[in-house]
Write a structure and sequence with these properties.
Chain A: It is a multi-pass membrane protein; Peripheral membrane protein. The structure holds 3 protein chains of 3 kinds. Chain A is built from 21 helices and 11 strands. Chain A is an alpha/beta fold. Chain C has a 6-stranded mixed beta sheet, with helices on both faces. In chain C, strands 2-1-4 form a 3-stranded antiparallel beta sheet, covered by helices on one side. By secondary structure, chain C is α/β, with parallel strands linked by helices.
């Protein structure tokens, strides 16, 4: 955690903010006398060695006054922020505290609606309103800025609370009988503290600037007190003769405002966004076994995908024949989806793809060429997991299909649209002419996935790569989508590369299965022999761990000890060894090569029942 | 179905507008009553005679019961009567009519300038820095825009006056006249806004470029231009418009300060003078105008959003 | 005699009726499986039983009385069901009844029940794997000594190699403690593996309910047949 803090911007912002706060405390004590010393011989002087920023109309040193004003400016800003946050938290948490009774819900909605109306008005307008109501002066301005910032805080708190309130741990605590106030204090507030602190820091900067504004207008701090805004207002009148009187307090405002804002940004970065600062670099390509033949649609050898130092796909080789259906199974983190994206040349920086061979339809895809665009655009179809997010939400379905034909087949708008409607019909979207005009959100999940498949059929695909195409769908819809894929294969002789975590799905659709673990293919076998003739202990466990309709109910399911391998921390030797009941010293030392379709030193060995179950301590 | 959704959206939105208007009108009515002490005494000063104060109270109707005053206030509003200034005696409606064009043209031009600056830079930076590339460019852009956004518009105004008005004497620094007088006030309002907006455009664009449907578009091997302009930009704009609308509201309020820097003869200059001289009818009138302006902007934003992203109308219902 | 009883329960969200007139009994010591597609209302029914969603009609009772405090629940997503700011021990202790004498040893006992080492009590959720978190959630559900446990899609968010351990745990706890469980899942094979009786839900209604073997071998409702066809190659 602390390492994330150590970037130059964060440190600089922290130091700056600390300096501002220290100055706010120290300056009034140290320089007050100098700042108030009237010297009528030195009225309105420019900057000199004695007076760095010159003197004002009473001959007082402006630089000293700017330093001393830090105290009032910063403390007023902090006080206003405190008022804003307190009122904001009260208003923002009120709907939750009112509870779920009908009366409580109504009261909560009323508060929220009121806050929403106030939030629509800009803070400065609210501040002006309150400044009139509370009267001109420092106290009036303090209350004005405090209350003016309350609605946006209330809205923020409300949004954050609503987000947390949906979490299951809140539901669990409510079921356990935890009361509303306790729920708020123990579960909600600690979990919204971080964004709240970040926003409060930035709001303090905002309050500082607002104060400067009000005082500048003459509505804030009044003579004889002075803050930066007041000094600015006084200095502006004489800006032609004496610009430093206006510029010095102006610079102070900006520096202090920046200190709060930059520190807030740094905080936000530290608690929120964590951008991996990965840089692609080449990793040595391991020699791989060739499994391809001349008739293959897709031939891959020694494929690697790396993100910085992490290599989630570690040199895999496989081929997909014309019209063949190949499944790739594995758990999350096994690299199966990255394999699909890499083959389709869809990995973007900072990801890095390398391969000894990557051929699609006999074309070498390793060096990007202009001609590849058309080839891939018409002959390679992709179907992704989540049809909800994979279609552009603001474009009509028909348009999204038609543009493929416009860009790759040179069709005009009208005939491209006609082809889109025809393709929707081909994937059995009912009433395609009307449906084409609809937006994705008007389609059901299964229909959207059909539309995705139809999009791939705009050209004449030789290969469909489907990455978990049915995972987001209902079982019954799942079946019809799989059937559609199967039918296309038969009708159009399209090859299929189906990526799935679900052994059952792969068995239903595929001829051949590749089992992936930790970025390697560990076994390759006919789909039909998955349950009967698997030789890798991982494949066997994977099949046995998933109950199907024939699993005996009186016996415990097979389990695999430990967690799936972390691509960032792979063990030496076989990556599965730490979880494998058969593993011995050699497995832990040497990575097994792929031999006759399986990469395991113990391939085919019998797993004794007592070895199968492992205690939790092993994980 | 779509028609029904639109009708519900229109009903709901109109309802909210009316409630907000009512809150605004009531707040501006109450303002004069929330002021501590006697507003008339405050306005006329300590030296005014008791008779004069009483007479003025009578003419303003301040001695009537509150509900009757409220009724009169609402009735007058409908007839366009905003009362008279306590200082100059001029009708408030005339004061506003005189000054509104100056403020509206300033805010409008500043907003256009900000959008014209922010959208291209934001989109460009997003394409250059997505997925964590060109970290230095991202850092420079983000820190630069934080600094620019932190400098409040009126301080930027003071700075611009000092440099371009005083040192270089390139542009006039006060008053409203020809095109040249617009340059500095518009710039001081637009630059900070452009910085904030540009950052939002970039962030939105980066997150849209990361979306699944952009991957789909890339899988279709569309031209880069098609992917960026037809698939990414419309989706990035929805969030941008929301924020831009909020900021346009803030911009309207921001004119208050900038007008005072440049002695711009607009509403902002007038409201501050009126607050200081406790000329409450004028303050009430100008607060109303600002508030209505903000509400109208919000309405336009919501309608634009509904047109761009039809899901938003349906999702809410 | 049944412990958890849904009597003509209806739940509405605004104008949408999510659960329609559902009657279902969960007998003491039994595991009742509830299966259905997404959006069929099965999770809403669970949340209604736990008192998280108000009823629009009907009654839910435990032993003929109020279900308040007698039902506990295990959720789908082990990443959102534990408070990230609370140690495992505190999460478990919070679910214990107010007057539990030795909370510390009770927490240790709960962890032991779900095969977790006692030192896990000092850890935060992010230090545990998905499967381990789900076990903590199960331990929390056991803490109040509830009459009924509702398990809502508890294996759907887990990796296939992990879901087996969680299913085994549910089965074993049921065998050892005679737990009464309402087990909800979209996966027919998973429901079949743990349940004595199976109820099939579609569009807010229970369309079929009976002993697991009968429902699976001789499905009566067309939707049940459709579900079965979908999982058999």
């Amino acid at each position: 955690m602390p390492r994330r803090w150590l970037n130059p911007t964060a440190i600089a912002a922290g130091v700056l903010l600390l300096a501002v706060l220290v100055m706010a405390v120290v300056a009034p004590i140290v320089w007050s006398e100098k700042a108030d010393a009237v010297d009528t011989d030195q009225i309105l002087q420019g900057s000199s060695a004695e007076h760095w920023a010159g003197t004002d109309s009473l001959g007082r040193d402006i630089f000293a006054r700017v330093l001393v004003a830090t105290g009032l400016s910063v403390s007023l800003a902090l006080a206003a922020t405190a008022i804003g946050i307190s009122v904001g938290i009260v208003l923002g948490t009120a709907p939750m505290l009112f509870g779920t009774s009908p009366a409580g819900v109504r009261a909560g909605r009323l508060v929220t609606a009121f806050v929403n109306i106030l939030v629509a008005f800009p803070g400065l307008l609210l501040a002006l309103f309150f400044a009139v109501v509370f009267g001109v002066g420092a106290t009036g301005a303090l209350l004005a800025i405090g209350f003016a910032s309350a609605p946006s805080f209330a809205r923020l708190v409300h949004t954050l609370v609503a987000g947390i309130a949906e979490r299951d741990y809140i539901a669990a605590a409510r079921i356990a009988g935890v009361g509303r106030v306790r729920l708020l204090v123990r579960h909600v507030l600690p979990n919204i503290a971080e964004p709240l602190v970040v926003n409060a820091t930035m709001a303090a900067g905002g309050a500082l600037l607002s104060f400067a504004g009000l005082s500048f207008l003459g509505l804030g701090v009044q003579i004889p007190s002075y803050d930066w805004g007041r000094m600015l207002g006084e200095g502006l009148g004489g800006i032609y003769v004496h610009p430093s009187a206006a510029l010095a307090p102006g610079i102070a405002v900006i520096v202090a405002g920046l200190a709060f804002n930059l520190f807030g940004e740094a905080l936000a970065r530290a608690v929120g966004l964590r951008n991996p600062s990965a840089r692609p670099h080449r990793t040595p390509v391991a020699p791989a076994v060739s499994t391809s033949d001349g008739a293959a649609v897709l031939a891959v050898e020694g494929l690697r995908v790396s993100y910085g130092a992490v290599t989630p796909v570690r040199g895999i080789s496989f081929a997909v024949g014309r019209g063949e259906s190949v499944g790739v199974v594995g758990e999350s983190g096994s690299g199966k989806s990255l394999t699909a994206l890499a083959v389709a040349r869809l990995i973007e920086e900072p990801g890095h793809v390398s391969a000894d061979r990557l051929e699609f339809q006999g074309e070498d895809l390793r060096q990007p060429k202009r001609a590849h665009r058309k080839l891939l655009g018409t002959s390679l179809a992709m179907v992704f997991q989540d049809p909800m997010t994979s279609l552009n939400p603001t474009q009509r379905i028909g348009r999204q299909l038609a543009e493929v034909a416009e860009q790759h087949q040179g069709l005009n708008r009208r005939s491209a649209w006609a082809r889109a409607v025809d393709r929707l019909r081909a994937v059995r979207v009912p009433d395609p002419a009307r449906r084409a005009k609809q937006l994705p959100h008007e389609f059901s999940g299964g229909m959207r996935q059909r539309a995705m498949i139809g999009m791939g059929l705009m050209g004449t695909p030789a290969l469909v790569i489907a990455d978990e195409p049915t995972t987001a769908l209902d079982v019954t819809t799942q079946k019809s989508v799989l059937e559609l894929l199967r039918e296309l294969r038969e009708r159009e002789a399209v090859a299929l590369l189906l990526i799935s975590h679900d052994v059952t799905v792969v068995r239903q659709v595929c001829d051949r299965v590749l089992v992936m673990y930790a970025g390697r293919i560990v076994e390759e076998l006919p789909a039909a022999s998955l349950t009967t003739a698997a030789r890798h202990p991982y494949t066997r466990a994977l099949v046995a761990a998933v109950p199907d309709m024939d699993t005996p109910r009186d016996r415990p399911l097979a389990t695999i000890a430990g967690r799936p391998a972390d691509p960032a921390a792979l063990p030496e030797g076989c990556a599965f060894a730490p979880r494998c009941p058969l593993a011995d010293e050699r497995c832990a030392r040497e990575d097994p090569p792929m031999v006759a379709g399986v990469a395991c030193w113990k391939a085919g060995a019998v797993i004794a029942p007592d070895l199968q179950k492992r205690s939790e301590a092993a994980s | 179905m779509a028609d029904g959704a639109w009708r519900r959206f229109a009903l709901r939105r109109t309802g909210r507008l009316l409630v907000s208007l009512w809150v605004l009108v009531t707040a501006s009515f109450l303002m004069i009553h929330l002021v501590p002490g006697d507003p008339v005494r405050a306005a006329l000063g300590m030296t005014a005679s008791a008779d004069l104060v009483a007479a003025r109270r009578q003419s303003l109707g301040l001695n009537d019961p509150l509900w009757l005053q409220y009724w009169h206030y609402l009735r007058d509003l409908f007839t366009g009567n905003l009362g008279d200034s306590m200082v100059s005696g001029l009708p408030v409606a005339d004061v506003i009519g005189d000054r509104l064009p100056a403020t509206a043209s300033l805010a409008g031009l500043a907003f256009l300038a900000a959008v014209a600056l922010a959208v291209p830079t934001g989109v460009g930076m997003a394409i250059l820095t997505r997925g964590g590339r060109r970290r230095w460019a991202e850092t420079t852009y983000v820190s630069g825009s934080v600094v620019l956004a932190t400098v409040p518009d009126f301080l930027l105004g003071v700075g611009l006056v000092a440099v371009f008005g005083v040192q270089l004497a390139w542009a006039p620094v006060a008053g409203r006249g020809g095109t040249a007088t617009y340059v500095l006030p518009v710039l001081s309002l637009a630059l900070g806004l452009a910085a904030v907006l540009g950052r939002i455009v970039r962030v939105e664009m980066v997150s849209v470029l990361d979306a699944d449907y952009i991957r789909t578009a890339r899988a279709k091997r569309l031209k880069a231009r098609t992917i960026y302009l037809r698939h990414a930009l419309p989706n990035a704009l929805t969030a941008t418009i929301t924020v831009a609308g909020l900021m346009l509201g803030a911009l309207v309020a921001g004119t208050v300060l900038v007008e005072n820097v440049f002695a711009w003869p607009g509403l902002g200059y007038a409201i501050v003078q009126s607050i200081l001289s406790k000329d409450y009818p004028v303050v009430q009138g100008i607060v109303l105008v600002y508030g209505i302006g903000v509400l109208l902007i919000n309405l336009v934003v919501d309608v634009a959003l509904a047109l761009l992203d039809p899901r938003s109308t349906i999702r809410e219902s | 005699m049944s412990v958890l009883d849904f009597d003509r329960v209806t739940v509405t969200f605004g104008r949408h009726t999510v659960v329609r007139d559902v009657s279902l009994a969960v007998p003491e010591g039994a595991v009742v499986g509830l299966v259905g597609g997404s959006g069929c209302g099965k999770s809403t029914l669970a949340r209604a039983a736990a008192g998280l969603v108000p009823l629009a009609g009907g009654r839910i009772t435990v032993d003929g009385g109020s279900p308040r405090g007698r039902i506990s629940m295990v959720f789908q997503d082990p990443y959102s069901s534990l408070d990230p700011r609370m140690r495992i021990g505190a999460t478990l202790a919070e679910a214990l009844p107010r007057r539990t004498p030795d909370r510390k040893s009770e927490v240790a006992r709960l962890l032991d029940l779900v095969d977790l080492a006692p030192d896990r009590a000092r850890m935060y959720p992010h230090q545990l794997s998905g499967g381990q978190r789900q076990r903590v959630a199960i331990a929390r559900a056991l803490a109040g000594d509830p009459d009924v446990i509702i398990a809502d899609e508890i294996t759907s968010a887990l990796d296939v190699s992990i879901q087996g351990t969680v299913l085994n745990l549910i089965r074993e706890l049921h065998r050892r403690m005679r737990l009464t469980v309402l087990f909800i899942s979209h996966n027919l094979a998973v429901v079949r593996y743990v349940s004595d009786t199976i109820a099939v839900m579609q569009e807010g209604r229970i369309v079929e309910h009976g002993p697991a073997d009968d429902v699976l071998s001789a499905p009566e409702h067309p939707y049940t047949r459709e579900l079965l066809e979908a999982v058999t190659p």
